[in-house]
Structure formats: structure tokens, C-alpha cells
């Protein structure tokens, strides 16, 4: 089997615009890392050869026709192109999830492989499923073999951009794609690498990517999540951290997701875990800030408004607008305080 592997674009700013909006990562960095990991895995399989058709150093944006010519001339059986998604006109936004593309002809071989890849990635990451789609992309149009273009998350979504930069997330994507190749083409891997079970360890210890936790689950992981919810200010008044994911935990998770603008599905997947980690740690290390001595309300500006915004999960711009007011009301409701959207001494002291 011959796999032509393509990390989309080039790095180092060579391809204009293909980056996280804040400039913290080029799309190629993600694409290339996944392709590298996938290459290593594929080369453990009997009878598999690979050809990398982008510039592996990321310095040249190899023209698309040149990429497909290389794959065609080499008589590849599969063309796999890795990308990260973007939406909108340059800023961060809410578009999210995983999608996998085949050419508009919908060749049955390509569709079934794309479906396996899509399914594996969704299972491994817990991210939103945008499905298998068709597109008239040049690399799909000009390649004469089964061709797939995979979009492994949105650079323009703050949460997903964070994941795209994490080594273990890249490993998860590579493993999911590899597993799809193995089952689809009945490949035989000679190395002792896990093909089904995939629980990569995170080096920094701050993000753990594993199965998602949801309603009905029990055990220490549930308890850990409940403790993080409590530390982040999301109450579990009836049952506390009892290790059982019941309806009280479900509503707390949903409230948490709403506050942090995540998909409100009540399932603790990678994105929610990242936020829970952050939010609960932030709370522990928070310095006690004395009440500034005046009611803080709609129309106010400044450092204290920023502090409040951080506490309630609103983008801290220091301007107390209607969004901040709504978030404060949510917070007050969760905390069992009087719900007026104004930060007085009681709300302030609960927050800080
Ligand atoms: Zn791309």
C-alpha cells in the first residue's frame, strides 16, 4: 500500500493567513505534526510505503498541482491531506468541530474511508461531529486515487486552537486516522503500539485526553470533576462530590459550559476538561482582593470590572456591558445570592 501524505500549506508564515488568529500557531505546525506521527505509525505496517508530498521543512508551499502530480506519478493508493479549519474573517468565533472531505464524485471507497476516519476522530476527541462532506478541492479533484482531506478542528475557535497546539491532541488525531487505515485496509502493524486503546499521556499534566465523562458515570474521575466544579464556583448543594454523575452534576456541568461558552451538552470531553482544569486552578491560586467599597454595575469600566469578568467567564475588556451583567446574574443564581446583576460586597466577597 502506498500512502501519499500531505501536510496542508507551509509554515513560518509562508502561506498567508493560515494561522491561529492571535498568531500563536501556523496551521502547518499542526498538519505537519499529525502527518509525522501518522508516518511513524504507518511505517510499522507490513507492505506500507509513504511519500510525503508537502515540504517537510515547511519552508515552501508546494503548489497543489505539484502535490497531486507527485502522488499520481508515484501511483499512490491513498492521498491523505491533513488540515486545521478556519471560519470567518480573521478573528475567533464559535464555529467548531471535526469534518472530513471527499471529492464531489463521492467515490464509495473514499466515502467509506472518510467515514471511518471521521468516526474514529470523534470517538477519540469527543469534539462536535460536522460529518463527512464533499468539496471541489484541488487536491481531491486532481488526485487519481482514494483521496481524503481532513480538518482536525478550528484554529478560529479558542478552545480548539488550544487543543491543536497540544502534542497529545495531535497524537490522538494521528492514532485515530491510523486506526481507520488499519481497519479499512487490513494493515498489519509489526510494532507493539496500541492500535485500539489510545490514551496518550499529557506531558504538562494540565490536559488529560481520554474518554469523556457523562451522565450515569461513576467513580474517581467523576469525583475529580465534581471537585473541580465546586472549586470553580459551581455548586452541588444536594449531593456534593459523591462520585456519581447524576442530574445535579449534569446541570452544574451545563452551567459551567454555558459560562465558558463551550458546547452545552453536559458531557465532559477534552474542551470542558481543559476549562475545568483552568477554572479550578485559577480559583485556588486567587489572591483575596478587598471589596473596592462601591457597587459595581452596568456602565462601569476598569480593573475591577476586568476581575469580575474573569471570575464569571466573560472576555475581560474592562467594560461592564449587558453580557457581563447577564453572566453576573447567572453567577448570583448559582451561588444562591440575590440576583440583581450588581456586584456589591456580598457578591464580591463570594467571588474573591
Ligand atoms: Zn488548511
From TrEMBL:
Citing just one GO molecular function, the answer is: N-acetylmuramoyl-L-alanine amidase activity
Keyword Hydrolase listed? The answer is: yes
Q: Does the keyword Hydrolase apply?
A: yes
- Domain MurNAc-LAA residues, every copy: 68-182
Check the record and name the Pfam families matching this protein. Answer: Amidase_3, PG_binding_1
Task: Name the InterPro entries for this protein.
Answer: MurNAc-LAA_cat, N-acetylmuramoyl_amidase_3, Peptidoglycan-bd-like, PGBD-like_sf, PGBDSf
GO cellular component annotations, sorted alphabetically? outer membrane-bounded periplasmic space
Keywords on record: Hydrolase
Query: Which GO BP terms, alphabetically?
Result: peptidoglycan catabolic process
Q: What is this protein called?
A: N-acetylmuramoyl-L-alanine amidase
What is the organism lineage in this UniProt record?
Answer: Bacteria, Bacillati, Bacillota, Bacilli, Bacillales
